Give the backbone structure.
Amino acid sequence: MKLWENNNNNHTNNNNKIEKFTAGEDVSLDQLLVKYDVIGSIAHAVMLQKIGILTQSELMDLKRALLEIIELDRKGQFKIEAWEEDAHTKIENYLTTKLGESGKKIHTGRSRNDQILVDLRLYTKEKLLKVQKNLLNLSNTLVVFSKENKSLPMPGYTHLQKAMPSSVDLWALSFVESLLDDLTFTKTAYNLNDQNPLGSAAGYGVPIDLDRELTTNLLDFKKTQNNVLYVQNSRGKIESIVLATLAQIMIDLSKLSNDLILFSTEEFGFFDIPEEFRTGSSIMPGKRNPDSLELIRARTNKVISYYSQAMNIIKDLPSGYSRDMQETKEPLLKGLDITNSCLEVMAPIINNLKANKERLEKSFSPEIFAADKTFKLVAQGFSFRDAYKEIERNLQRVELTSPEEIIKLRKSRGTSGDLGLDELEKRIKEELNFVKSKKEKFYQKIDTLIG
Amino acid sequence: MKLWENNNNNHTNNNNKIEKFTAGEDVSLDQLLVKYDVIGSIAHAVMLQKIGILTQSELMDLKRALLEIIELDRKGQFKIEAWEEDAHTKIENYLTTKLGESGKKIHTGRSRNDQILVDLRLYTKEKLLKVQKNLLNLSNTLVVFSKENKSLPMPGYTHLQKAMPSSVDLWALSFVESLLDDLTFTKTAYNLNDQNPLGSAAGYGVPIDLDRELTTNLLDFKKTQNNVLYVQNSRGKIESIVLATLAQIMIDLSKLSNDLILFSTEEFGFFDIPEEFRTGSSIMPGKRNPDSLELIRARTNKVISYYSQAMNIIKDLPSGYSRDMQETKEPLLKGLDITNSCLEVMAPIINNLKANKERLEKSFSPEIFAADKTFKLVAQGFSFRDAYKEIERNLQRVELTSPEEIIKLRKSRGTSGDLGLDELEKRIKEELNFVKSKKEKFYQKIDTLIG
Amino acid sequence: MKLWENNNNNHTNNNNKIEKFTAGEDVSLDQLLVKYDVIGSIAHAVMLQKIGILTQSELMDLKRALLEIIELDRKGQFKIEAWEEDAHTKIENYLTTKLGESGKKIHTGRSRNDQILVDLRLYTKEKLLKVQKNLLNLSNTLVVFSKENKSLPMPGYTHLQKAMPSSVDLWALSFVESLLDDLTFTKTAYNLNDQNPLGSAAGYGVPIDLDRELTTNLLDFKKTQNNVLYVQNSRGKIESIVLATLAQIMIDLSKLSNDLILFSTEEFGFFDIPEEFRTGSSIMPGKRNPDSLELIRARTNKVISYYSQAMNIIKDLPSGYSRDMQETKEPLLKGLDITNSCLEVMAPIINNLKANKERLEKSFSPEIFAADKTFKLVAQGFSFRDAYKEIERNLQRVELTSPEEIIKLRKSRGTSGDLGLDELEKRIKEELNFVKSKKEKFYQKIDTLIG
Amino acid sequence: MKLWENNNNNHTNNNNKIEKFTAGEDVSLDQLLVKYDVIGSIAHAVMLQKIGILTQSELMDLKRALLEIIELDRKGQFKIEAWEEDAHTKIENYLTTKLGESGKKIHTGRSRNDQILVDLRLYTKEKLLKVQKNLLNLSNTLVVFSKENKSLPMPGYTHLQKAMPSSVDLWALSFVESLLDDLTFTKTAYNLNDQNPLGSAAGYGVPIDLDRELTTNLLDFKKTQNNVLYVQNSRGKIESIVLATLAQIMIDLSKLSNDLILFSTEEFGFFDIPEEFRTGSSIMPGKRNPDSLELIRARTNKVISYYSQAMNIIKDLPSGYSRDMQETKEPLLKGLDITNSCLEVMAPIINNLKANKERLEKSFSPEIFAADKTFKLVAQGFSFRDAYKEIERNLQRVELTSPEEIIKLRKSRGTSGDLGLDELEKRIKEELNFVKSKKEKFYQKIDTLIG
């Protein structure tokens, strides 16, 4: 029975239909949140005991029963059904059935509105740390690839036309720097998510003096999210901010996929995508297609659209909780999942990627050296614009040059001659340590709470 | 084993990971398509027999085995697993295991690329007809509601400010006309979807003289989609066109939900939403919230974002099939499903909706009559602009009038006095017959094919 | 002075700021609508005369003064300023200043709400017919290009990997069929737009018996948009439907641009983009970049986002006019403009495009013939799947074949051997005639009205 | 003449058309960037002099001529025409015409690709600081409003249904906290934008040893954006990150607008929107509509769609500059402009907003106290769930209570009893100082550079 249901209500056929409609996919998503709901409930119970709502023995009972739920859930024996409404209701019902009175007290001073927010914030913390770690792993893989292909000449393109001499490591490290900017972006999202919503109840507080700072500490939140109405209004908002940062990562992966697909065509031939990441055709024998990369590219659009979903769902809601907010759960959870899986698939692809030195070299044609010739004239005293016009008039006379030699002439910062690899490696290492320590602290706090 | 797989390949750990990644949710979506894949396969087999690739007895064997699959699938005994890749592969493997040689012939002259397109087009036909029927049912319900509340005065709002006298039926029928425009829009989508892709193979045809018109006829397609490369390039395009039309329906439902939520607040009080479509709160006893309507509103954003997904996924792909296209399956299938379920939930809400006559009457305040007073002065010989200024200067003297009387003064077409109900009812009836006959013809053709 | 302004209001500084904010870019967009506002006003005046609100001589005066405005506007002497609010106000003020009493009568029975809708519908009619004509012109150009390159072999790609033999005309005509499906889509949008909103006033009608059918006829609308509240609620909706169809056209242009950019790279070399559609670099002498195509691709995203704008702006509005709707004007007007300009730029590009026969031929490598070899074994009695495996095992033995010969083996409908060119040409011709006759009828009606 | 143009090219009609198409609105947007282009050019020139490309006197000449351009531009006498291509070309042409040789040297070692990036980054810095200041001003205004209405009871809504007692200051400060989270988000965008792109040239560096750190310092960038290819690939990316943060601000403003529109209806009547921010109707005398708020709400969708534009435009581009990137200029510039203007309009609205105490008090009906009664039973020893059921069964007996008294019972953090106003005020003050000092430092650096 639902928490808010009248005793004398009959379950009619219409009710079942509505139940199915309102629960929708939400119930299966809630399954992923059971663990976090239990953790949040334990913190809430500890706080209730401290302010005198629960006795110590009631707290112990609740804690024991709640930990049983984690165990059952792990074994797949705590399956939420549509008629049970959601994870919160099922858990409260379990506690009440098991414990009687103390079960009926657990919901004192909270609403499902702040309860689900706690679940989502904890879930996001864990998954966003994983995103950051995966992002750094991929960065590392790209650094290794860059070192293996240090200063290996590669044409630089603009407008998909050969433009100027470049190198494989310049190309690969451009993605590393982009990913590191994304990392900065996700850290802000992480911090905005790292606010404790518990104690906001339905968005207007309760006439009980809850100790919100205590649960903030128990659950390893960085701060208490203060204004209780803002807590509710931030549902969907924090989600969309998180998704905005995931979208940027996905766009980087999409760009990388696109480059790899193009540069590994027979026509370009710069890279070989490892065999195990390609799949075949049902009609054309021998084809080996870069499906994984294509799927990363396609799923980028999913994550982008999850961002739109979360944002548009809440955009025009009046202040205070509305049921619409439930529907921001799917984009958040799936957005985190897709981003992690794509990062995890991209890393081994890069790890096994081979640059085709021969094809790269052969791809240098004379026109790619036109700009360099211009600068040669500048060095001889021409003004840049006159030099440009001189070369423009005599394009057919631009000769093929050694790409290796040309690459060596680039010396200023950020060019093939000075890619700042040491700094990048240092930063990646530091960031990895930072993520690791965040994660350890989080797990330690949770262990202490439920231990 | 996959159709394209080398015999000497080992399933490694990496392979499993990639399998899981590439299959993704696609495998569970494919489950919904098994029936249609079988139907398309039977049509293909009939055609292969006609052009001499299959013998009559091979055709009979294939047909029998394919119909077994429908039966197994109905009983939940044809579950596709990630390592089986997709519905097409599993079905071909089933046929080959069961029948040997004839199973190995079924794929002659087709590719999974055109095979999946057939499945999706057939699925879309069926579900889009259902959308149209549901849309017309809802329209009917709104018509009934309009008749029950004929000429019942209701304030007309602009800028959410009381503007001019209006009526409940004017309001309700405005949605009917909007839905009927949506219907027109979906019919175009229906027609564009109603093109047979079979025989396009991988997008470049095959060196066999397939009889494409035959399968077009067997599968009740309106026409053969001609250019084989366009067939492939239209994947995602037709999907996005279908979703664009669904989005319009959802926006209407969202607008209707919004109006209902607002007009049934305590503050407005014009309508009472039936109890069984409201849900309660876990913390506030007695609350009854319009959750179903809020979810319709929220899910509108999902359908809109499915449209963006489908469109953005294919937007920048080169001509010819890319694996990205697989990811347009989820938005299409879910978009159709959400639209149907929302239409099906809205109809009983309207069917049980009550207009609160007393509150509606009480809501008429003098300023709402200002424009009517202006027209009274016009009738007395004032120019409109002078009359307007006269009333503007003497707003406090505008008196309360009987809304019923005022409503009666509206006579021109489309106003409360002449809502064109008969025409609307006639159109709805005709459209329902049209949809019904389309559906019957479709089912009859399929019955003949598989009979 | 504004129509609704109190005489004793002082223009304060704050007012100016708000004026600027509310008018925004809207005033410059309104400039484009002056002509249509005048035409709609003449039709309204003719109707007012018929129902006795205006005398024949007042009508003549109004008509004369309104035609002066068209003349002034054509000469750039009717510039709307932010403080004049909008086109409607400026025009009414002009009439009142010029004519006195009859000017004050023109607004009888209408609101700026239905007035702007008339303007937008007329504008859209004209520009959408232009879109259709431009689309058909481009289709024609692609047909001509296809004939020039009939059966010229070109590799067919899937996953951007060489897949099967194809031809230049198969490729080019795939876009024609896609554009023709878009045309069907725009025709529905055209019809939904072709409804007369005049007489709906502010969305609740007026207590005057307007003859709405008359203005429908005078302005060449296909039908009167009936329910007056739906008329208002359809603002933004019709816009978004129009934009959805424009988005599909743009996506086709984007795909075509993408293919052209890729296939004209040095690496592919299949096509040469005409020199006058390329631009250079400020630093690299000799570069010639396909900027026009890149801009078409980029602007596709603008049109797509205009669709989102229009739809999201109105999605959650309550029934009845809200000022938000004004902001759907920009996406509509710019969407139509961009689509037309991109179609007009693409046509001459295709018209001057050259296929590079030599590069196309050289690009055929043995693996592209694997599927054809498979079908050869099928013809020899192998089952398809066994033949596939046989070829898969012996890929290195697949030999280079003459692409011309291979292309000739494709005979079934829609393949390189039977592209249905005659039907396409016939359809394009018929559609061009249809568009032309629509346009002529429209212009004739307007000429009669203002003549 | 364009920088890259061949001398013997003729301006044909087609060329003009293409010119117009490629320049598009870009030329008018470039006008806004002239000032920044000059500043970036001066920094580049200073650097060129330092590394020996320019003499001291050439530098002085260039600087003088560049400052003339700022002056001309300020007076509206430096208008870029479509045939002049863009700001960069026009400026170089001006310098060359004016100075001869030294003008021809200014472009040494840079490309328009990095030049435009400098312009955009500087522009964004300035405008984003303005956004931050405007955001803080609005926050301050909301704080003042909260103090004026301290603990003034207001119903708290969930699902747009009266839920629990709340207060006007709780409501108002919820927006302040949301805006401050947005501020955090914009600061990340600010930092990611604060990277010097100059010296990346066309994305592959130049064979000259540019001193990139010097221009970073001269232009007050926080760091040099290192990898030269990433610099190019970050175009559109940084833009979309900036726009993602602007979108969040706009969503807050939209939510605030929505609440204000609803709560100031006759039906709710909680707030009175100041007269000067309302506009009238052309047909209904006396109407005063909240147009400014509606426009803020509508324009939120514009900013959101600008984000999509920027992101989708670059999403699938290959590495390296493509002309598509030009089209990200409009969304960035307009997004910044709209956000600033909406913040600037919202502040005076809040500043003049009146809470209607009488209507607020009258709006409290008994059911709003149900949850509080439940907690009263909890205090009497009931378990929460039993208390809830008790009240649910006896809803009709819940009595009206004094809202003021009920409000006082809320004591825990973030509720009406402890809103943390001091902390908020402190933070706003600190942030204002931070923004102010950033701005001063920026202006000082630029002054030094051009002084």
